[in-house]
Write a structure and sequence with these properties.
By secondary structure, the chain is α/β, with parallel strands linked by helices. The chain has one domain (4-147): Rossmann fold (3-Layer(aba) Sandwich), CATH 3.40.50. The chain is built from 5 helices and 5 strands. It has a 5-stranded parallel beta sheet, with helices on both faces. Helix 2 (55-83) links the parallel strand 2 (32-39) and strand 3 (88-94). Helix 3 (98-108) crosses helix 5 (132-139). It is globular, with a radius of gyration of 16 Å. The model has no long low-confidence stretch (mean pLDDT 89). Residues 1-148 form the UspA domain. It comes from Variovorax gossypii. This is Universal stress protein.
Length: 148
């Protein structure tokens, strides 16, 4: 049925439920699991007149973001392998276009299913980003399983 399942995660509670479902699905279908998260690229400044950070501060902030993202997907891969999934990969994409990064990863990794939560982060961050899940649903040529 499925040979490679991609699960997108942002570490939210609902996203964790999607991860568990994706692991179970990979086990049921004897599929490989690819976990992906998108690390946002740190901006230099948000608008003219904003406080500018030094290059070193920007690099440190980006390195912190990248490390946290890598730990998140490594945890997913380790959990999948511990439960018996035959192969699990952990991928961090650096982008400010979350949905496009997920779709690109699914294509590049030759996945035949994308699993993700109906929504992730809350508050202003979600409003600013818009519905990434909706974007994946409407632009992906790969089937998408959305969990609520």
């Amino acid at each position: 049925m499925y040979k490679r399942v991609l699960v997108a995660t942002d570490g939210s509670a609902l996203s964790e439920q999607a991860v568990k479902a994706a692991i179970d699905l990979a086990l049921l279908t004897n599929a490989d699991l690819v976990s992906v998260t998108v690390a946002h690229i740190e901006p230099v400044g948000y608008f003219e007149g904003s406080m500018m950070l030094s290059q070193r501060d920007i690099q440190e902030s980006q390195a912190h973001t990248d490390r946290a993202a890598q730990q998140l997907v490594d945890k997913v891969a380790a959990s999948a392998l511990a439960k018996g999934v035959r192969s699990a990969q952990a991928i961090v994409m650096r982008s400010n276009q979350v949905a496009e990064a997920i779709i690109t990863t699914a294509k590049n990794q030759q996945c035949d299913l994308i699993v993700m939560a109906s929504h992730g982060r809350r508050s202003l961050a979600r409003l600013l980003m818009g519905s990434e899940t909706l974007h994946v649903l409407t632009h992906s040529h790969i089937p998408v399983l959305v969990l609520r």
